[in-house]
Design brief:
The protein has 259 residues and is α/β, with parallel strands linked by helices. It is 38% helix and 14% strand. It is globular, with a radius of gyration of 17 Å. This is Peptidoglycan-N-acetylmuramic acid deacetylase.
Length: 259
């Protein structure tokens, strides 16, 4: 079998951490710059089996903005302003620490109509948890979120550092969660690594493709500065920004057997 070189976003290689019966994987893909959806190799079978997503396979020129938030660096308010001004929906995958430390921003995300995703309470490696520990971590996050908003519960989950396996995918399904990975990202989570907004812009535009689920971090000044340029240029190229709910609802309508 030919090797696929994965362009890992959160890790530099596939992590193999052996448990009694499951290996742990770090999300990754074969990066492209020809407007094509990147390949994910063996991960595709896992997503098919457990109903996870990493892109929109309709072929339409739709984009889905997602942000991972573990701590606040002072840029999220400005990012929310840009999203509001351009009427672009987003999903914010946040941790329990973020909910506790930045409740006003969480409340604004919800009031602005954005989705909140479960990024765990403790930013734990899901594959190192027992099933009861996994459930408790996610439910702690839900309780924290409910304590500062009227959000019923989250539907989408993104594992910290992209670490997962078949067992954690199954456990999440049993709790009613849908895994949302990504098909476009770059190393943008180092708060002190500022290269200028053009660098961030170019790295995103070079990977752009129809149906991309885009992962960004709000700790990056470069991301905050490039976001408006990126949104406007994508719209000029005929792209439409949609919510993850649009993607999932469309698939459920097309497959009425889905509960």
């Amino acid at each position: 079998m030919r090797k696929i070189i994965f362009s890992l976003i959160s890790l530099s290689c596939i992590i193999v951490a052996f448990s009694p019966s499951f290996s742990a994987y770090g999300w990754g893909y074969k990066r492209t710059n020809d407007h094509q959806v990147p390949e994910i190799g063996m991960y595709q079978d896992l997503l098919d089996q457990y109903g996870g997503y990493y892109h929109d396979d309709s072929g339409e020129k739709t984009l889905y903005l997602t942000f991972d938030n573990g701590f606040e660096a002072g840029y999220t308010d400005g990012i929310l302003d840009i999203l509001d001004e351009n009427e672009v929906p987003a999903t914010f995958f946040v941790t329990g620490h973020y909910v506790k430390s930045a409740p006003e921003l969480i409340q604004r995300m919800v009031s602005d109509g954005h989705l909140i995703g479960n990024h765990s309470y403790t930013h734990a490696d899901f594959t190192a948890l027992t099933q009861s520990g996994f459930k408790e971590d996610l439910l702690l996050f839900e309780r924290a979120l409910q304590s500062v908003t009227n959000y019923d519960r989250t539907q989408y989950i993104r594992p910290p550092k992209g670490i997962f396996n078949a067992q954690t995918l199954e456990w999440a399904n049993e709790l009613g969660y849908i895994h949302m990975f990504w098909s476009l990202a770059f190393v943008d989570w180092h708060e002190d690594n500022v290269s200028g907004w053009e660098s961030a812009y170019n790295q995103v535009m070079d990977q752009l493709h129809p149906g991309a689920i885009i992962l960004l971090h709000t700790v990056s000044e470069d991301n905050a500065d490039m976001l408006e340029h990126f949104i406007k240029d994508c719209i000029d190229q005929g792209y439409t920004f949609k919510s993850l709910d649009d993607l999932v609802f469309r698939d459920q309508v097309m497959d009425p057997l889905v509960d």
